[in-house]
Amino acid sequence: SLSNGSTVDLSGIGFDGNYNNLTNTPTDVSYFNNDAGYLTSFTEVDGSVTNEIQTLSVSGNSLTISGTGGNTITLPTPAEPTYTVGLNPDMGGYIFYVTPDGKHGLVAATQDQSSASNWGNAKDVVNNPANHNADGKKFLDWRLPTDWEMGWLYTQRTSIGGFTSTPTSFYWSGIEDSDNPTRSFAFLFDSSSPGSSNVVQIATIYVRAVRAF
């Protein structure tokens, strides 16, 4: 067998390249329908022997074929995905908030990124892949939550999972106290007295990452 443009030298078996010198050849070559060299006549219905070669082009969601009588068809536009609250590994964790149209929202990592970071370090460890599980490692846009987002995280803490809930389990937000630049807001994940407080930035407390989509 031949492939990739290979050639075979037939001179050693006495073939000189002339079809008529071959033995046991078919006597009625008309059986070779449209075989190269045996198509003796045809009817060109539109007067051109070149316009059968046409090109396809795509612009946006329009597909066009060239040449006389060419047409353009409109391809269907893929539907934009929508999301709901719940665990979504493809988005990196647990979706805890979605916009009314379902196209955008917020995702929480399903594990803590640190149990003892000051506020300055927290902004670094929150996006370090080494501090995330396999789903979280898919993304590099993790950040500290806002104070408002902290309330959503606390409300859904059981579904999200992995939070520590004790009288001292504060989690850093990304919001600095505008009245005191040495303090930032943190949220206490204690079922008996949850809420936001401004905490000195050198305190070493918990970190949980969120991301927007």
Give a structural overview:
There is one protein chain. A 4-stranded antiparallel β-sheet has the order 4-5-6-12, with no helix packed on it. Strands 1-2-3 form a 3-stranded antiparallel β-sheet, with no helix packed on it. It has 213 residues and is mostly beta strands. A hairpin with a 6-residue loop joins strand 8 (170-176) and strand 9 (183-188). The chain is elongated, with a radius of gyration of 35 Å. It is 9% helix and 25% strand. It is built from 3 helices and 12 strands. The protein has helices at 119-125, 147-155, 157-160, and strands at residues 56-59, 62-65, 72-74, 86-88, 93-98, 105-108, 114-117, 170-176, 183-188, 195-200, 205-207, 210-212.
Features:
213 residues; 3 helices; mainly beta; 9% helix; elongated
Strands in their spatial order, largest beta sheet = 4-5-6-12
What is the mean pLDDT? 84
First-last Cα distance: 55 Å
Q: Percent of residues in helical segments?
A: under 10%
The run of helices and strands is: EEEEEEEHHHEEEEE
> How many E strands?
12
**What is the gyration radius calculated from CA atoms?**
35 Å
Backbone structural class = mainly beta
Biggest sheet overview: 4 strands, antiparallel
Strand content: 15-25%
Segments where pLDDT lies below 50 for 5+ residues? none
Please, how many helices? Answer: 3
Give the overall shape, derived from the CA principal axes: elongated
